[in-house]
Task: inverse folding
């Protein structure tokens, strides 16, 4: 009866009701996240300059495109996918404002290739725009939840990442920019410091603390220690907090794009440019 009496004693405390209430809120948020219905198209990117001042290729290498020498060449990978719960149909794209990837004015898009797509039936394709030559259209039949593609673009722009323009009916906030693929995949973190590793450690510790708070006498006997946890109520509260924090970190640092679209290699660029800086330059131009 020792453990049962201890459990009754814990639930008789006033603050335990608050902890249960917080857990109820957390469960409600989880159910909402699992059942919500949104129309969302997201994209992410990574890039590497191949030819130029910081290019990966030797400087004495020269390239030509349509008879003209190229002094700059950048490879950009763009992930595009349906990150919502509703299907996006081709007729939802506004004809007067089609989907397009646009690089800096005066640059040239040399090629655009769909490297991967979740399903061929989506018929996702890229179409280069001849004039002025710094952009390309993006078209598809439909995208269910998680459907998308990995697109490789070779271009001469100083801005390594494009603007994603276009309007889709039912998406008043526009296309969602989720930033660099490296930060989303976790490859930029070392194994020791990866937030998900820390979250799992916190989760295990939180579960153990909750167990100590609920069954202090039994656990003490199991481990043959000569004492009972001095404050089971504190262990229960702290453990619950650790568990909630762990779930938050795991959700925040989850891989947001479909696993099927994971690039085979992540590109590195010593001159990483943030999206805000690029958009600011575009607005000034």
Result:
């Amino acid at each position: 009866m020792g453990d049962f009496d201890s459990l009754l004693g814990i639930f008789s405390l006033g603050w335990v009701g608050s902890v249960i209430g917080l857990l109820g809120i957390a469960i409600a948020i989880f159910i909402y996240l699992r059942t919500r219905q949104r129309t969302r198209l997201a994209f992410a990117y990574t890039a590497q300059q191949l030819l130029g001042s910081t290019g990966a290729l030797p400087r004495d290498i020269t390239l030509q495109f349509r008879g003209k020498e190229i002094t700059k060449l950048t490879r950009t990978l763009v992930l595009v996918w349906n990150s919502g719960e509703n299907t996006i149909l081709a007729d939802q794209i506004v004809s007067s404002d089609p989907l397009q990837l646009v690089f800096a004015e005066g640059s040239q898009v040399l090629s655009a290739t769909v490297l991967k797509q979740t399903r061929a039936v989506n018929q996702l394709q890229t179409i280069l725009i001849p004039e002025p030559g710094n952009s390309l259209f993006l078209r598809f039949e439909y995208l269910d939840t998680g459907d998308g593609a990995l697109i490789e673009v070779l271009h001469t722009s100083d801005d390594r990442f494009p603007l994603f323009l276009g309007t889709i009916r039912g998406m008043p906030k526009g296309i969602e920019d989720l930033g660099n693929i490296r930060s989303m995949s976790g490859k930029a973190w070392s194994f020791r410091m990866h937030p998900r590793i820390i979250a799992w450690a916190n989760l295990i510790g939180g579960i153990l603390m909750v167990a100590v708070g609920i069954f202090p006498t039994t656990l003490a006997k199991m481990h043959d220690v000569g004492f009972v946890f001095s404050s089971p109520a504190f262990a229960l509260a702290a453990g619950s907090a650790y568990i909630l924090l762990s779930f938050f970190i795991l959700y925040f640092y989850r891989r947001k794009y479909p696993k099927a679209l994971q690039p085979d290699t992540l590109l590195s660029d010593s001159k990483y440019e943030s999206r805000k800086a690029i958009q600011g330059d575009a607005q000034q131009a």
Remarks:
- The mean pLDDT is 76.
- Residues 14-35 form the longest helix (22 residues).
- The chain has two domains: 2-35+190-252, 41-181+275-284.
- DSSP finds seven helices and 13 strands in the chain.
